[in-house]
Specification:
The chain crosses the membrane at residues 20-40, 52-72, 108-133, 139-163, 170-187, 207-224, 258-278, 328-348, 355-381, 387-407, 470-490. Strand 1 and strand 2 (192-193) form a beta hairpin. Strands 1-2 form a two-stranded antiparallel ribbon. It starts with a helix and ends with a helix. Helix 4 (58-82) runs antiparallel to helix 6, helix 8 (167-181) packs across helix 21 and helix 10 (207-225) packs across helix 20. It is an all-alpha fold and 500 residues long. The chain has helices at residues 2-15, 18-36, 41-49, 58-82, 92-103, 107-140, 145-162, 167-181, 199-202, 207-225, 244-265, 271-286, 299-314, 316-322, 328-339, 347-351, 353-374, 378-384, 389-408, 411-429, 435-457, 464-467, 469-486, 488-499; strands at residues 184-185, 192-193. The chain is built from 24 helices and 2 strands. It has one domain.
């Protein structure tokens, strides 16, 4: 306990510097803004802002990007409640009762309980991250290359199962990501792989180029297809502070939602998305009168909103302790850390304790900032809902092109980004989820490196992967997860869950 307190003290000393406080505030404001504006999302925003973070020291850069991520969870609830459009996929459930409350003139109470629940969940999740990160890191230090390779394989297996759409499609996207990660010059042999004699590909595909194209630009193209319809509630927002009865009804759902979200957020794949859905289901089943749900029950806002914020923060645990990104946003964080010369994994805690604990402490500060800036500024966020997309998207594209060009001063990077944008748009039209592709791309390079090291240590014997107990356990877990996913009964139930 004393170690934990001393680590947190170190983290707060880092997070409370003027620069890091400013970056956390900017991240929270940008995150809330992108959460409020449906169609942009934290993945596209973090991708677009990656080049800007090059001039910031690593701890500040990660604090800024983390603030955008959990700020978007807050902002998503505002549009879900006021416009009936979830700014983020994790806010989908909030539309069910939150918008009904808004139509009854209780939007303020819904927004207030969402902010209070998110703040409580953020505090719980910060403690969970701080408590679990150290033991997990100690375990991870026992891992060798074989264990890391098998762990990443298990992580990709979870990503396949938890991805939206069919299992074969998710598998194809992960394999495509792995394939793209091999493009460029092989550092061992010096041979070019799939560069086709084109010089810009000789150094491999830049992470920012792929992410910007597949997520940033493709998201803009996808939104151009959609008809702009916003059902903004006309009734007054009402008082923002919930009544005593509202708080009494919401207390237990907030606690349950925080715990559920914190646990599910750790899962590889996209566990943070499952939290709000699981919380809503639990609250509906525990309710004395389930018919209230879908008609403006405040428990249907309090539980899911707590769960999505807790899940967003605990998804940092696999990244910070093991170096394994559990979802696409965390894959972007891996990219950001790599760009700043930091190798994600268990050694981050020992080699860069200020970054590790500074980021964790900044989460609590960020949640406090979000509570303060969200409630008084609700009116401002509502005005942003009136900005037409035809003005917003061209500006995003121009600034993103400047950003991607500035990374290497290369016009070829902009061309490649445009190519990936078209590919990303085609994936969307074909109903292929792109998050597994990015996970495959990020983990592909790490898997290849660990596979080679493991084979070198075992003198070329692949048997070492099954002879080492921890590695064998991860491989068995991957096989079990994939076999379960293709069983007809499980496959049918999986489809039903995603439809729900």
């Amino acid at each position: 306990m004393s170690d934990l307190l001393s680590h947190l003290a170190l983290g707060f000393s880092v997070a409370f510097t003027l620069q890091n406080l400013g970056l956390a505030l900017v991240g929270c404001l940008i995150g809330t803004l992108v959460g409020v504006l449906p169609g942009v999302g934290p993945i596209a925003t973090i991708t677009m802002l990656l080049p800007i973070t090059y001039g910031v020291e690593p701890t500040g850069a990660i604090i800024l990007l983390a603030g955008i991520y959990y700020g978007a969870q807050y902002g998503g609830s505002t549009t879900a409640i006021l416009v009936n459009i979830p700014g983020e996929v994790t806010a989908v459930v909030t539309t069910l009762d939150g918008h009904e409350m808004a139509k009854q003139g209780r939007a303020g109470a819904a927004l207030g309980i969402a902010a209070i629940g998110s703040f409580f969940a953020g505090c719980v999740a910060t403690l969970v991250v701080a408590a679990l990160a150290a033991p997990l890191t100690r375990v991870a230090l026992l891992f060798g290359p074989a264990e890391y390779f098998s762990l990443m394989l298990a992580g990709l297996a979870f990503a396949v199962v938890l991805a939206r759409g069919s299992v074969p499609r998710a598998l194809v996207m992960i394999l495509l990501g792995l394939l793209l990660s091999t493009v460029g010059t092989d550092l061992e042999t010096g041979a070019e792989r799939m560069a086709f004699g084109w010089a810009p590909l000789a150094d491999g595909i830049d992470f920012a180029v792929l992410a910007m194209g597949v997520f940033g630009f493709a998201e803009v193209l996808r939104n151009l297809d959609l008809t702009e319809q916003r059902d903004v509630v006309r009734r007054p927002i009402g008082r923002l502070l919930p009544t005593g009865e509202d708080l009494r009804r919401s207390a237990l759902p907030i606690v349950r939602g925080s715990l559920l979200g914190a646990i599910l957020g750790i899962l590889p794949g996209n566990g943070a998305v499952l939290g709000p859905f699981a919380s809503y289901t639990v609250e509906k089943r525990l309710a004395r009168d389930p018919r209230r749900f879908g008609r403006g029950a405040i428990e249907g806002v309090a539980g899911p909103e707590s769960a999505n914020n807790a899940g967003a923060q605990t998804s940092f645990i696999p990244l910070l302790s093991l170096g394994i990104p559990p979802n696409a946003v965390m894959a972007l964080m891996v990219g950001a850390m790599t760009i700043h010369g930091i190798v994600p994994g268990p050694l981050v805690m020992t080699r860069s304790p200020q970054l590790f604990w500074g980021v964790i402490a900044s989460m609590w500060i960020g949640n406090l900032m979000l509570l303060v800036i969200n409630l008084p500024l609700v009116g401002v966020w509502v005005r942003f809902l009136k900005v037409p997309y035809r003005l917003m998207f061209p500006a995003i594209l121009v600034f993103s092109c400047i950003g991607i060009y500035s990374v290497n001063n290369s016009a070829a990077d902009v061309l490649l980004t445009a190519g990936f944008a078209l590919a990303g748009y085609a994936f969307v039209r074909l109903d292929l989820e792109t998050a597994p592709l990015l996970l495959g791309f990020v983990l592909g390079r790490l898997m290849e490196e660990n596979l080679r090291r493991a084979l070198a240590i075992s003198r070329g014997s692949a048997a070492s992967f099954v002879q080492r107990p921890i590695s064998a356990a991860f491989l068995a877990l991957a096989v079990v997860v994939l076999v379960l996913a293709v069983l007809p009964a499980v496959r049918t139930r999986r489809k039903e869950v995603f439809v729900e």
